[in-house]
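Data availability (excerpt). The following record was deposited with the supplementary files.
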Amino acid sequence: MSTADHQANHDVVKHSERHEGPQKHIIVFIFSIILTAIAFAAVSAGGVNAAFTVILLLVMAVLQVLVQLGYWMHLKDRGHLMPILFMIGGFFVAGTAIVTALYWVWW
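Predicted structure:
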């Protein structure tokens, strides 16, 4: 195989990869803005049950974190299993520390 054939073959493989354009990023950015607007509206609206507002804010926060991790930190892409596993382990350790601290303080 000549150098020119190898270069042409490399270019074909290189261009066949799917490039994620800015369209998804714009859609995800708008979705993040909508989630933030819903959270602000829930807090600023008077007469809404406080428990409902807290639950809505927690749901909006979880959705926001998933969107941020999935699209802006690219954890939805292939090859990111180890960072995901380490984050799950970190959440487990942090949750255990919080529960232990609360148990220790209130016992």
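Summary of structural features: Residues 3-76 form one domain.
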